[in-house]
Design goal:
By secondary structure, this protein is α/β, with parallel strands linked by helices. It contains 10 helices and 7 strands. The chain has one domain: NAD(P)-binding Rossmann-like Domain (Rossmann fold, 3-Layer(aba) Sandwich). Strand 1, helix 2 and strand 2 form a beta-alpha-beta unit.
C-alpha cells in the first residue's frame, strides 16, 4: 500500500457524523453493539429497553444521547416515545422481540395470531410512529432470521412469520420512500439472550457451530452491528433482506 493510500485510510471521516440513530431494544446484545458501532461512526444514539437499570448502564457505556424505558410491544408507549423525540432522526433499528416456536397443533388461535403477525405489527407501529420524524434517505432496520426458513418439527409458526418479512419490508420501502426499509436475517448470534435460552447447552452449541460453519467461528453481535451500520450508511440499499449467519442455513 502506498503512503498516500495509507493516509487516506487513516483519515477516513466517520460515516454517521451529525446523524441520530434510535435503537429499539438497545440495552444489550445486537442493539447495544450497534449503538457502540454507530457512536464510533460519529452518530448520536438513543437507546430504549424494558429494564431501566440495564438501560442506564448501557447508556453510560456507549455515551447515549437519550434513553427511554418501555415495552416495545406496547403500541401506545411506542407512539409516545416517538412523539416526544425532537426531530429529526435518521435511522431506527429494532432488535426487541423475537420469533415464536412450538408445534402448531399445540397453539391456540390467539397464539397463532401473535406468532404470525406480532413481529410485523410491531415493525409497522415503529414505521408509522417514526416516519414523520425521519430525514429523507434515513432508514428503518428490522431483525429477521435465517433459521425460520426451514420447515421442521418444533419451528411451528416461525417459518410462516419469517417468510412474511421480506415482502413486508419491500412494500413498506415503496410506501415510505425516500426513507429506506431493510431487514437483517441472522442465524445464531452469541448474545446474552442466546445464553439465557440455551443455558448449560451454550458452550456445546458454540463448539458445534465452530466445527460446522463455513466461516469456522460463531457469529457475534459485532458482526451484525457492522452490517447494520453499513446498511444505514449505504443509501442505495432499500427493500431488501441481508443474511448474516456464517453459512448456517446451508449446513444445518
Amino acid at each position: 500500500m502506498t503512503s498516500a493510500a495509507s493516509t487516506a485510510v487513516l483519515t477516513r471521516e466517520p460515516e454517521l457524523t451529525g446523524q441520530t440513530v434510535v435503537l429499539i431494544g438497545g440495552s444489550a446484545g445486537i442493539g447495544l453493539e450497534t449503538a457502540r458501532r454507530a457512536r464510533a461512526e460519529g452518530a448520536d444514539v438513543i437507546l430504549t429497553g424494558r429494564t431501566p437499570e440495564r438501560l442506564r448502564q448501557a447508556a453510560v457505556e456507549v455515551g447515549a444521547h437519550r434513553t427511554a424505558a418501555f415495552d416495545a410491544t406496547d403500541a401506545a408507549a411506542l407512539t409516545r416515545f416517538f412523539q416526544d423525540l425532537p426531530a429529526p432522526i435518521d435511522h431506527v433499528m429494532v432488535t426487541a422481540g423475537g420469533p415464536t416456536y412450538g408445534p402448531l397443533l399445540e397453539m391456540d388461535s390467539e397464539q397463532v395470531r401473535r406468532g404470525l403477525s406480532g413481529h410485523i405489527v410491531q415493525a409497522l407501529e415503529v414505521a408509522r410512529s417514526a416516519a414523520g420524524k425521519m430525514r429523507p434517505g434515513g432508514s428503518l432496520l428490522f431483525m429477521g432470521g435465517t433459521g425460520g426458513r426451514r420447515i421442521g418439527h418444533g419451528l411451528g409458526i416461525a417459518s410462516a412469520a419469517t417468510a412474511a418479512l421480506p415482502p413486508f419490508a419491500a412494500t413498506l420501502a415503496l410506501e415510505l420512500a425516500p426513507i429506506r426499509v431493510n431487514i437483517i436475517a441472522a442465524g445464531f448470534v452469541d448474545t446474552p439472550l442466546s445464553a439465557a435460552l440455551l443455558g448449560d447447552r451454550l458452550e456445546e452449541r458454540r463448539e458445534e457451530l465452530r466445527a460446522t460453519l463455513p466461516i469456522g467461528r460463531v457469529v457475534g453481535p459485532a458482526d451484525v452491528a457492522a452490517l447494520a451500520v453499513h446498511i444505514m450508511t449505504n443509501t442505495a440499499l432499500t427493500g431488501a433482506t441481508y443474511d448474516i449467519d456464517g453459512g448456517q442455513q446451508f449446513v444445518s
